[in-house]
Amino acid sequence: MVATALAFAHGQENFGKAAICLIFALQVQIGTNFANDYFDFVKGVDTAARVGPRRAVAAGLVSPKTMLRATSLVLSAAFVVGLFLVREGGWVLLPVGIVSIVCALAYTGGPFPLGYLGLGDLFVFIFFGLVAVDATFFVQVGFITPDVTSCAAAVGLLAANILVPNNYRDAVTDAAAGKQTLVVRFGRKFAIWQYALSALFALLCPLALFLYGYRWPVLLPVLLAPWAVRLTNRLNRSSEPAEQIAILGATAKFLAAFGIMLSVGIVFAR
Predict the structure, then answer these.
(1) Which residue has the higher pLDDT, 178 or 18?
(2) What is the pLDDT of residue 245?
(3) What is the pLDDT of residue 258?
(4) How high is the pLDDT of residue 111?
(5) What's the rounded Cα separation, in Å, for the pair 53 and 209?
(6) Is 123 helix (H, G, I), strand (E, B) or coil?
(7) Cα-Cα-Cα-Cα dihedral of 56, 61, 64, 66, to 10°?
(8) pLDDT tens digits, residue range 151-197?
(9) Rounded to 5 degrees, what angle do the CA atoms 200, 202, 206 make?
(10) To the nearest whole percent, how much of the chain has pLDDT over 90?
(11) Which of 92, 151, 170, 192 is the most exposed place for a label (fewest CB within 10 A)?
């Protein structure tokens, strides 16, 4: 949505191409979730001690073999859709698509699982922010500009923030299973600072766009600043897993609100 609003601001929006990007992104997201469900169970991270939404394999709802097949099916479908993106945007997108699919598996699978090495936040920032927004814009317009990458970074930071309360909640069980998230590595105070600074830098993006030449409506997302402060304080005070689950959901809503307000602001600012 943000990328298409930016394409509109540049006078080259293409909703058909944007729809293909959306389908690809959803399939990679679903495939990643399926892979996480499978590999976290196999590696012993998802146990009876885990607190949070039920995982299908750990709960016995789906067999590991079935989940692995589902992962392969969804990511194979993503590859096929990705070929349409290559046709629309050029061969430069082929390695981007392949790396996206590989990292969907490598997030919790393979010999060097990214999420277990404390790299999950970085790769969420890259793929849910920089790759998602920049590539969707590129498919429609054919080039990338600094204002687009600024928005991509903001979206990526807020997407990575969804991981923070999740990893904050699971710090004890993750440490016991050898999953070295940033919270496990550097502690919960670090997680609070990460969460707060990510929200701050994301909310500076509209100001950067304003200085770049967009008109005042682009500042609309700044109205979310008090909400960001409240979420940070909630996370800092939280001690119960149920509260941290609620904060995770609220963080996702914050990202959605930011994306909507930023998109509306961009459309009316040009």
Answers:
(1) 18
(2) 92
(3) 98
(4) 78
(5) 38
(6) helix
(7) -110
(8) 999 999 999 999 999 898 888 888 887 888 999 999 989 999 999 99
(9) 110
(10) 69
(11) 92
**Amino acid at the residue 95:** P
166 within 8 A of 99, measured Cβ to Cβ: no
Report the predicted TM-score, pTM, of the whole model to 2 decimal places.
Answer: 0.89
Name the CA dihedral angle for 95, 97, 98, 103, rounded to a multiple of 10 degrees. 120
**Hey, what are 226's tokens?**
């008090």
Closest by Cα among 106, 118, 95, 104 to 26: 104
Measure CA 249 to chain center.
13
Task: Give which of 190, 198, 109, 132 is closest to 160, Cα–Cα.
Answer: 198
Residues in the chain: 270
Q: If we measure between CA atoms, which residue out of 125, 107, 124 comes closest to residue 37?
A: 107
How far apart are alpha carbons 84 and 144 in whole angstroms? Answer: 20
